[in-house]
Amino acid sequence: MKRLISFLCMFAALLVVFSAAGCSAVFNGGINGTIVDSESTQTPKEGIAGVQVYAYTDVKQRDSDFKAWDGKSTFKPASGNYAASGITNGNGNYSLSGIFWETKDSKFGKTGDYKQIYLLYYSEKYGLVKNTSPALVISDNSANTVYEELTKIYSTTEITVNLKNTSSDNAINIPLNVEITVPQKQGNRVYSQTITGTGRISVSYPRYKDDGTDSEPNISINVWDSSDKVRYKMSYYKNEYPNLKASGKDYAFLPASETVQKTIKGSTYNTTVYLKPTLINLPPINGRILNQSPAIPSTPPTIGSPDDDNVLVELLDENGNPWDQTNLTQVYTRSSGNGANSSIVTHGLFSDLGNGLTFYKDDYDEKSLSFNVQIKVNGSTTLPEQFTVDCGKNYFDAGVIEWQ
Description:
By secondary structure, this protein is mainly beta. The protein has three helices and 28 strands. 9% of the residues lie in helices and 45% in strands.
């Protein structure tokens, strides 16, 4: 008898399991939708492109993702919470398929069911929005169309950033890091991009101030060089930056704690950030030497004498010390012209002295660095000539250097 009772209990348990398993079914379906701008004056209203759409079968999971968004960064739902996702096309239309759900209480038996779906819409301009009412998905069907109107809560401005050399006013042709900080309702949002010369960065910010007027946010721009040898640093440029005081030094380097601040508005904005070179390129030096006691008198049509040719000319620093890069700081003089057809022969010419010579300096206040050097004529009994070279120029003309 006990064995029979035990058998009957096991049989009853199996019936419960199989009965429960038999009542569970999995269905899938899809939905189509259209998202438009609520303020559009077109008929029909203008569709919104690029809206991310997320479908949830569980309203609590939808609401959890909605509450988790910080209101300033790009929305990213928790992995596994949503059932399907998509993005609107240029007309604001989207289509979601593959929405699965499991139920033990299908509305049409084992052949069909329907399910309420909860949606989230995300766009940088429109923020994160819940759908106004649940959408209905019918199994094996995607004919149901959801219509939603969104109101823009963020403005977007495309900022054109021009990076210019303070010394020459030319565009800087090396990549530099640009960081734009934009205020939000809570905290700030930072946009970063690498720009060579000119680049565009789109930024978003709350459309309205607390008093309901249009926002014109004050943004902060920081530019820096992340290479091993920093080649440029931001500088003042007369009155270009109203928020900064140059203390009479119109072109000095900005302190490390300072950034450029601008007030932006509208869909586009153009600004220039000025930087000065810290890795200085000495411009090539050209000139001519003239022997005061030539072995061969110079006669027309000759300038100088053969004694001025093939003479070593050396570039020294401001204290008269030689540079390490002798291949860049030593050249030999030459002549130009051959006297044919009464052409003038010029002796003692030199060029490209110091070409390619670089050094680091980040404490000069001038628009471009004025650098003191000396030029020595090899074998000369006279002292080296002193020169002040403007490093913002393409070359420097040393003129005529007399020697003997």
